[in-house]
């Protein structure tokens, strides 16, 4: 079977991430309704089974549209807050 033409030798996101040697904590945040990056590639067992990779596929968010209403101390930057939540336990104290 021949590969479709790509800018690199990788066909899917999982192949790319693992091929780059993802041995550090990696958060993939995407949405079902992303019009540019189909979420199916992030369901790949290569990603799902990698202990260093956390995949979060939300129903909505579009392409980089993860925002919420601002309330109290919440600035509305939902994706950034998830990244901080993901990284906080990994940071030295």
Compact summary:
The protein contains 3 helices and 2 strands.
Protein described:
The chain is an alpha+beta fold. It has a domain of 40 residues. The chain contains 3 helices and 2 strands, in the order αβαβα. The chain has a two-stranded parallel ribbon. α2 links the parallel β1 and β2.
Mean pLDDT comes to: 79
DSSP summary: helix tally: 3
Distance from N terminus to C terminus (CA atoms, Å) equals: 50 Å
Helical content stands at 10-25%
Strand numbers in spatial order across the main sheet: 1-2
Poorly predicted residue ranges: 1-6
Principal-axis shape: flat
Which H/E pattern describes the elements?
Answer: HEHEH
Task: Count every beta strand, where a strand is a DSSP E run of 2 or more residues.
Answer: 2
Rounded to an integer, what's the Rg over CA atoms?
15 Å
Topology, element by element:
Blueprint (H helix, E strand, L loop, with lengths): L12 H7 L6 E6 L13 H4 L4 E6 L19 H10 L6
Parallel strand pairs: 1-2
């Amino acid at each position: 079977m021949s590969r479709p033409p790509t800018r690199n030798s990788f066909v899917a996101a999982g192949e790319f991430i693992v091929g780059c040697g993802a041995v550090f904590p990696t958060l993939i945040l995407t949405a079902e309704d992303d019009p540019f990056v189909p979420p199916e590639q992030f369901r790949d067992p290569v990603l799902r089974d990698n202990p260093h990779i956390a995949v979060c596929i939300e129903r909505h968010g579009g392409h980089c549209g993860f925002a919420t209403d601002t309330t109290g101390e919440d600035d509305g930057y939902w994706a950034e807050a998830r990244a901080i939540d993901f990284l906080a336990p990994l940071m030295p104290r």
